[in-house]
Amino acid sequence: MKISPVQLLLFATFLKGMAWASIVPIWHFPDEQAHFAQVNYFAQESKMPKGPGFDLSKEIFISEQYLGTERDGQGNNKFTYHPQYKIDYTNSRTGKSEFEIANLPKSFKSEFVKREATHNPGLYYMLAFPFYKFVDGQSLFARVISVRFLSVILATLTVFVVFKISQLIFEKNKVFQIALPALVSFQPMFTFSTSGVLPDSLVFLLFSLFIYLTLLVLKNGWTMSRIFWLTLILIGGFFTRQNFPIILIFLPFVGLITFIKSSQKINFLMGIIVSLIGLLILSFFVPVLRSIHTFEFPEVATKTINNVSFLTHLKFSIKQTFAQTIPWYWGVFDWLGVVLPRIVNQIINRIMIIAFIGVLIRLFMILGNRKIVKLNLQKRINFEEIIFFYLGYVSLVYFAVLIFWDFLFVRTHGFSFGIQGRYFLPTIVAHMYLIIVGISIFKWKKIQNYLVFGLSLAMIVLNTIALYTVSKTYFDVSNFRTFFIQASQYKPLFFKSPNLEIIIFTYFGFLLLFIVLFFRQVLRYEKKS
């Protein structure tokens, strides 16, 4: 059976997620212990935690004490901003305190001693429930890994959706069709955020599905089927993250363009109006949706205690974006204490500058070809240009909304919430599309294809560097034997050596095959063109 580069990419994406999930110690993905606490609470109590009561199990609490991740009153632990700190390892596959953690009384799972669960909307945690229950009788480590498995599956589905998006927007270029999902898949922070116990993986999938459907609408118009699926995705998103209503801001652009393009403007406008009214009505009956029309979010209070101006906050935010957010967008690990090597970030910054210049050139080329005064919108509008403006709009508006939300937080709490780079990953497909557009601005297609292949290869190398950076943060990487022994500790049997070696080397095997087939696709495409 012939296997395609895309199929290999999906296999590699899944194995990559399993490799990261098997190497990173438990409680070292962003707030993993708090997210798993919500999964555990739902499994034990058959309801989501709410109110001021305790929701962190005694089992999780004791494991954090043993492993050094118990947080103090300021939210810090032994690892926070201390990359030099490491727990004690043994010379065997079993960690120093592994037996004690694995054999805590079963009753500790349902004994709650502290408030630390995330209290997020429950969809991700409900999806995690069967994975948790499948290994319910096994150790804490097995249950954590089983839920990580769900996140890896969702990430793989996201990459598949991105491939469908790339088929839509790069209809005639099969090299670009592979490059876009590859760039998303191997972006280090995307990998990190979708290999642990946290709902980001579901958020990324739902955002990508939403962007795919809206692109279909922009290309082919509204249908009742698309309105139905968009509504379903929106509801699913509201039951995943409190900030998911941000996505509603993308709809005015879609509505405006379909209005301009369509000869049946009333029908398409009615489709938008009906779907939005339906969501508004539903929001009165579903508590998590009420933020749509009340604009109330739990993180933003109503009393102003800091009168900082928006302009002052904007200047601060832009400075933070370049100094912290962009480096963290590409990778920050070990409780915010470890970033990618400095030289790597310098190379990334230069590539981003080149891509940004390319995007500006593309923008001026589009505007330069149009006489705005004489523009006949319905006849002159071009789907390729619509994609460019829409995905640019998605990126800019999402950034602006997060900055404004942080501004409200500052005014009501007196300090910034802290915008992490991973908060922008829901729109990663738009970011990677713009990078491809910026890098491939040259007219000569042969250069375009080799540049985009090289960009994809660079992202794979970047992901490998990130995995190595994470590995050496926790373990001794001076030789394979020591590394695999240490990485096996505090893991279920399936992720201990020699199984761990099988996972890692199988991943790199599939990765190498993908690179070879992708390059052959580039050569084949060049011969045809």
Strand order of the largest sheet: 1-2
- In terms of structural class, how would the helical and strand content be classed? mainly alpha
N/C terminus separation? 27 Å
Low-pLDDT regions: 284-297, 371-379
% residues in beta strands: under 5%
Shape estimate: globular
Radius of gyration: 24 Å
The major sheet is characterized as: 2 strands, antiparallel
Elements, N to C (H/E)? HHEHHEHHHHHHHHHHEEHHHHHHH
What average pLDDT do the residues reach?
87
Short summary:
It is built from 21 helices and four strands. With 529 residues, it is an all-alpha fold.
Describe this structure in words.
The protein has about 525 residues and is mainly α. The chain is about 65% helix and about 0% strand. The protein is built from 21 helices and four strands. The protein has helices spanning about 5-25, 30-45, 60-65, 100, 125-135, 140-170, 175-185, 190-195, 200-220, 225-240, 250-260, 265-285, 290-295, 310-330, 340-370, 375-380, 385-415, 430-440, 445-475, 480-490, 500-529; strands at about 55, 110-115, 330-335, 340. A two-stranded antiparallel sheet has the order 1-2. Strand 3 (about 330-335) and strand 4 (about 340) form a beta hairpin. Helix 6 runs antiparallel to helix 7 (about 175-185), helix 10 packs parallel to helix 12 (about 265-285) and helix 19 packs antiparallel against helix 21. It is globular, with a radius of gyration of 24 Å. The protein starts with a helix and ends with a helix. The relative contact order is 0.13.
